[in-house]
Amino acid sequence: ERQRLARLRHTPSVTLDGQKIELLANIEQPDDAAAAVHAGAVGVGLFRSEFLFMGREGKLPGEEEQFAAYKAAVDGMQGLPVTIRTVDVGADKPLDKKSSKDASLNPALGLRAIRWSLAEPAMFRTQLRAILRAAAFGRVHLLFPMVSHLHEVHSIVAQVKLAQAELDARGAAYGMVQLGAMIEIPAAAIMVRSLLKHFDFVSIGTNDLIQYTLAIDRADEAVAHLYDPLHPAVLGLVAQVIEAANDMGKQVCVCGEMAGDAGMTRLLLGLGLRSFSMHPAQILSVKQEVLRADTRKLQPWAQQVLCADAPAAMLEDVGK
Ligand code: PEP
Ligand code: MG
């Protein structure tokens, strides 16, 4: 089976009805770019930059160290686009094992991700400058985690402009980047049309979207049986975001675990998704589903799944 899948590595990812589907890789370190290219990814859809920040006893990476890491990822992808997400620490990804940030009562609802970046603008701009400089060497997209307020969007844009001005003042080379928001808080999914007016693209983080929609801690074993990607409320939000982005002519990707689950591929295609980002090891099995899919048939079926009381049962047999 693995050998058969390996033969698909260089097969273009196109459905039976001719829809081109973008299969991207999620990476945690610049070195992972090699595995991404090897698996046939056409780019990096999510570089989780927080892994450069974690386990350093509070000593954060400086601009040069970050620049070297982002440039290494860009170089490693050999001209393919790289989406770099700004630091997303907190909750399940603490800076350190016993960092003071973990002391908050509800870390998943606390000062994490973009909230932390905006609370520490000097640190945020250090990261932005490093990413903008790496963008001089290839195609880079900038992705912001856990956006949920429009005033955060305005602050983000202001900080990006300031970072560019700082590089200009120094005469440093940098590249243009597209700006995108992670949609992983229900509020962001519900108001995605407002967010899309300000961003070039969105990426749906289903791991957190499920956690926050269902109020299920994604890392708590005691409630793991209730963590359900096929919950009708979750599917409704995912569908709404894909539809809004397609409507407005903006790029939309899913970069949570859902994108790498081959059992979900047909449903996501039926909902109109054309871009998936996942662990490199999952790319070929998802591609196999894409090659067998006919989106014209999947679309009406996906609408039925959205309205079903038990969507999981429908995924088993229909649509094949
Ligand atoms: C997500 O929340 O789905 C996601 C892709 O981000 P992370 O898993 O890093 O929180
Ligand atoms: Mg997330």
Structure commentary:
The chain is of the alpha/beta class and 320 residues long. Helix content is 43%, strand content 12%. The chain is built from 14 helices and eight strands. It has helices spanning 2-6, 32-38, 63-76, 113-119, 121-134, 150-170, 186-190, 192-196, 206-214, 232-247, 265-270, 283-292, 295-307, 311-317, and strands spanning 22-27, 44-48, 82-85, 140-144, 178-183, 201-204, 251-254, 275-278. An eight-stranded parallel beta sheet has the order 7-6-5-4-3-2-1-8. Helix 5 (121-134) crosses helix 6. The longest helix is centred in the middle third of the chain and has 21 residues, at 150-170. The protein is globular. The protein binds phosphoenolpyruvate and magnesium ion. Residues 46, 48, 88, 184, 205-208, 255-256 line the site of phosphoenolpyruvate (PEP). Its cofactor is Mg(2+). Residues 3-293 form the PEP-utilising enzyme C-terminal domain. This is Phosphoenolpyruvate-protein phosphotransferase. It is an enzyme of class 2 (transferase). It catalyses: L-histidyl-[protein] + phosphoenolpyruvate = N(pros)-phospho-L-histidyl-[protein] + pyruvate.
